[in-house]
Amino acid sequence: MIGALLCSLAVFASAAETIEPAQTRWQTWRDWILPAQGGQATLFPLGDVFSPPLADPKQPRFQAAWQRYHTDFGEFSVGSVGFGENLGIARWPGKREGDGWQLGVSGAVFAIFNLDAPSHDLINADYVIGFPLSVRKDHWSARLRLFHQSSHLGDEFLLESQPIAITRINLSYEVLEALLSWDNHQFRLYGGPSRILSTVTPLKRNRVQAGAEYRSRPWLGPSGRSFAGAEWSAWEENDWRGNISLKAGLLLSSPYHEARSVQLYGEFFSGEMPHGQFYKLQTRYYGLGLALSL
Question: How far apart are CA 285 and CA 211, in angstroms?
Fold first, then answer.
């Protein structure tokens, strides 16, 4: 009987040695930051491990909106469009589903048109190309993005007499942006700095942004949910005067992959215009829009 007891204790000790490492989540920073051992990279994955901020008006996405601007030089209606997306190049999965690293490329064109003009004149167009590196672990995610932006005024805007004098400048720069985010699937907080690394225009370099988001549980069918986002941002070039961007609406996700969705939303913005050549002009606008995530 004593021999049987000793044999049982030996089996239990052996099992404990097998189980104990699996119960430890991570021992060093390398275990937290590196992908799972043996995890194979996925080429051209859908979506990203870092969700683009909802209320940031300059995130690459496909979108179209009607906006009503209120400025010191009058009120007018604007058609705002964006053509762009973040394309994942490779993803290295983590130890938990949804975790991992992703390298991608993103690009977009953001343009605004004067809807009050007979020919709906182009006012400004911003061109953005970047390379985001993102990571997610449990409730935390982060993105480091190096991107280039250049801005151009529309020909009709330059040729026609305008209620405000705009001197065209060669607005072109390269930016390094870092964002850190925490979420519990429905609520999210994020923020971080960015810095202009190189520019041909004499601009002050530093900018910060922070925001909060809410996504409800599905209540309109299996994938329809409401959402809301708020973002505050400020740029050293404008003496750190804060800008506020608000967005709320309905999000309809694809039943096949949540990264693909349609967003119907209302929005409000107050601060310096988020369009290249007009970055020093104060404005307020509200609008209605449609966005697609592919």
Answer: 19
